[in-house]
Amino acid sequence: MINFFSKYEREGFISFLSDFLPEDVKFYSQPLDLPKDFHFFLKATLLSEIKNLNDLKIIEIEHNTSIDKKITLSREIFRLMSTFSFSNALVILNSENSSNYRFSFVYSSLEWKSDKSVKKVFSEPKKLSYLLGEGIKQYTPKQQLINRGKIKNFNDLKSRFNIEIVTNEFFDKFNVLYQKLLKFFS
Fold first, then answer.
1. Number of alpha carbons in the 13 Å side-chain half-sphere of residue 13
2. Residue 122, by phi and psi: left (phi above 0), alpha (psi -120 to 50) or beta?
3. What is the pLDDT of residues 51-72, one digit of tens each?
4. Rounded Cα–Cα distance for residues 44 and 32 (Å)
5. Measured distance CA(24)–CA(43) in Å, rounded
6. Contacts of 49 (CB under 8 A, 6+ apart)
C-alpha cells in the first residue's frame, strides 16, 4: 500500500494507480515533447491512457517551481493539455526540490460563448487536487483514493476529487458524533 507521507516515487505511485484505476489500465513511459515556452515544466511523461474513462490520460510532470504556486502550475497544465489536445487527465506534479507533490484531476468541457462560438473550459486543478508527501494529513486522501476502492466510471473519478463531497462527508460524521455527545450530556 502506498504511503502518502513519502516523497513521490514513480513505481510506488503506479502500484497505487493499478489498485485505484480499472483493471484494464496499462502503464508505459512516453515522454511528451514540451515546447520551449514551458518555463516551469522540466519534463512531462504520459504514463497511461484509459479510453473507457473518457480518454483519461495520466501525466507525470516534473517542475522547477514551488508546489505552492498553484495558479502558475494550473496555467501550465492547461497549456500542456491544449498543446497535446488532452481533455481529461490525472496529473502528478513533482519537483526534486520538494518533499511534497500534487495529484490533480483536470477535465475539460465545451461551453457556448455565443450562438456561433464554443470555448474549451478546464476544471480547476488546484481545487480538484491532493497535496501529498512529507508532513501532509493522510485521512482524506486515504479515504477518497484508497478506502473507496477501484474507480467505477468517470463520475466516480470526479467524486473522489470533489472537495464539496469530502466536506459534506466530514460534516455528516461530525453531526453524528455531536448528536451522540448531546445524548450523553442530556
1. 22
2. beta
3. 999 999 999 999 988 766 777 8
4. 5
5. 26
6. 55, 56, 57, 58
Instruction: Name the grid cell of 102.
Output: 500534487
Distance between CA atoms of residues 63 and 68, nearest Å: 12
Length of the chain: 186
Q: Is the pTM of this model over 0.85?
A: no
CB-based burial, 37-56: b 16+ in 10 Å, e otherwise: ebebbeebbbbbbbeebeeb
DSSP letter for each residue of 83-100:
HTT--EEEEEEE-TT-SE
Look up residue 159 and give its DSSP letter.
H
Biggest alpha carbon distance in the chain?
67
CB 186 within 8 A of CB 154: no
pLDDT in tens, 79-117: 898 899 898 999 999 998 889 999 999 987 656 677 777
Secondary structure class of 141 (helix, strand, coil): helix
